């Protein structure tokens, strides 16, 4: 498949040899979380075996080594997303944490009664609920860009929706339940033409395609390390320096301060102002290793391989009697949501699991998307570059076998 040495790549991911119910694992739940290559696992082990220590605190050697590793990872992330400065890279717990940080901090500083935040109809709950919480607190309104039956945003409505009440546009680059790739540049262009800042959630984009924050000219961006072959518990918030300097800290505590007295605290400079408390040091170092790994393969090659896999899977799945695809955008990432007539998604998920095939079933933390299509949930197969067409064949055969039992 493609130009990737797929068999060599698969050797980097020991978990792909795992057996489930006596069958070799076929892992198609990559949109939920990706598997980790040995290059990441070794770095984590090495950290805890050789230089585990707290960062930014001690003069002792181990602390300096841990600090150097942690800050090197920040530089790796900055280069990967082409940030103008590594001060613009804040380590968080993940996408959800980054979204809560911006909603809380931006909301407290800039949202007034009658203002609004504009999101899209296909947001993950983590790009809905934090905005509802802060809007309620500030008397602001949450507005939504609608989508059509293919799962494509109704861009013709955007000029009217971007009215003077909108203080921030926040949307996902790629939908985790539909696979739609949104027209990010055009959304940013229209918002900026009205001086409205933009936040993008790249939780489902950063592992699939190059994302350049300067080229996009985006104001804020969030993602999770675990979706790009890194550990859980670590994520990234990118923000333009001018915005991050203007925003108040999200949490108070150690590391985010310059001086503290009982009367007054002076906050630390970027990026530490937004990193209160002991951070996920090993997680950041692991994320740096994951990005090095992705770079060693190349995002262009990854995108090409995944696109081939997506095209093949869409063709093969179309053979399954009674299949209905949810989300039919022309521009899409390697996520396929579907239903089989007469089969409940959970039942299919369970029967596939018995055959060693892991897919996701349910609402995928996008209940409004499910409500829009009038369904309780979908089956979702999502691919990574380590997946193969042979695995897609197993999925298709597995679905047919399960449907024969269930219908
Ligand atoms: N946004 C999108 C588009 C996602 O796919 C996810 C994870 N499913 C999230 C946000 C939340 O990510 P996390 O749970 O890692 O914070």
Please sum up the structure shown:
This protein has helices at 6-11, 38-51, 61-81, 95-110, 129-138, 158-161, 184-193, 213-216, 241-246, 281-297, 299-317, 345-354, 367-373, 389-406; strands at 19-20, 23-24, 26-27, 89-92, 116-120, 141-145, 166-172, 198-201, 220-224, 235-239, 257-260, 265-267, 323-326, 335-340, 357-358, 360-362, 378-382. With 407 residues, it is α/β, with parallel strands linked by helices.
Write the layout of secondary structure elements.
Blueprint: H1 6-11, E1 19-20, E2 23-24, E3 26-27, H2 38-51, H3 61-81, E4 89-92, H4 95-110, E5 116-120, H5 129-138, E6 141-145, H6 158-161, E7 166-172, H7 184-193, E8 198-201, H8 213-216, E9 220-224, E10 235-239, H9 241-246, E11 257-260, E12 265-267, H10 281-297, H11 299-317, E13 323-326, E14 335-340, H12 345-354, E15 357-358, E16 360-362, H13 367-373, E17 378-382, H14 389-406
Helix pairs in contact: 2-10, 3-10, 4-5, 11-14, 12-14
Cofactor: pyridoxal 5'-phosphate
InterPro entries: Aminotrans_V_dom, Aminotrans_V_PyrdxlP_BS, Cys_dSase_SufS, Cysteine_dSase, PyrdxlP-dep_Trfase, PyrdxlP-dep_Trfase_major, PyrdxlP-dep_Trfase_small
GO biological process, one term: cysteine metabolic process
């Amino acid at each position: 498949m493609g130009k990737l040495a797929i068999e060599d790549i698969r050797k980097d991911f020991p978990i792909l040899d795992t057996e489930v119910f006596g069958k070799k694992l076929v892992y198609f739940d990559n949109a939920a979380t990706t598997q980790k290559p040995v290059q990441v696992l070794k770095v984590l082990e090495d950290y805890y075996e050789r230089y585990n220590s707290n960062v930014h605190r001690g003069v002792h050697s181990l602390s300096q080594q841990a600090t150097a590793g942690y800050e090197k990872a920040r530089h790796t992330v900055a280069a990967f997303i082409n940030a103008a400065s590594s001060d613009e890279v804040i380590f968080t717990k993940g996408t959800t944490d980054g979204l809560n940080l911006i909603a809380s901090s931006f909301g407290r500083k800039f949202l007034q009664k009658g203002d609004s935040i504009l999101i899209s109809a296909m947001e993950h709950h983590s790009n809905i609920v934090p905005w509802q919480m802060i809007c309620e607190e500030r008397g602001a309104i949450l507005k939504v860009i609608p989508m059509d039956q293919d799962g494509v945003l109704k861009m013709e409505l955007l000029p009217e929706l971007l009215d003077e009440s909108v203080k921030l546009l926040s949307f996902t680059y790629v939908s985790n339940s539909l696979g739609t790739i949104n027209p990010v540049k055009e959304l940013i262009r229209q918002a900026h033409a009205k001086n409205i800042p933009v936040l993008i959630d790249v939780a489902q984009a950063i592992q699939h395609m190059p994302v350049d924050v300067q080229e996009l000219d985006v104001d804020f961006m969030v993602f999770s390390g675990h979706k790009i072959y890194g550990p859980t518990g670590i994520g990234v918030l990118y923000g333009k320096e001018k915005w991050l300097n203007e925003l108040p800290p999200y949490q108070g505590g150690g590391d985010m301060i310059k001086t503290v007295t009982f009367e007054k605290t002076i906050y630390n400079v970027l990026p530490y102002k937004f990193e209160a408390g002991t951070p996920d040091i090993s997680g950041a170092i692991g994320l740096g290793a994951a990005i090095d790994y992705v770079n060693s393969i190349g995002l262009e090659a990854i995108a090409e391989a995944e696109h081939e896999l997506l095209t093949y899977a869409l063709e093969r799945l179309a053979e399954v009697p009674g299949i209905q695809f949810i989300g039919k955008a022309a521009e899409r990432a390697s996520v396929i949501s579907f239903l089989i007539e007469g089969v409940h998604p959970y039942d299919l998920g369970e029967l596939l699991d018995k055959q060693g095939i892991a897919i996701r079933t349910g609402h995928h933390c996008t209940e409004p998307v499910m409500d829009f299509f009038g369904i309780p949930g979908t089956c979702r197969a999502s691919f990574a570059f380590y997946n193969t067409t042979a695995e897609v064949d197993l999925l298709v055969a597995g679905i047919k076998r399960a449907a024969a039992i269930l219908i």
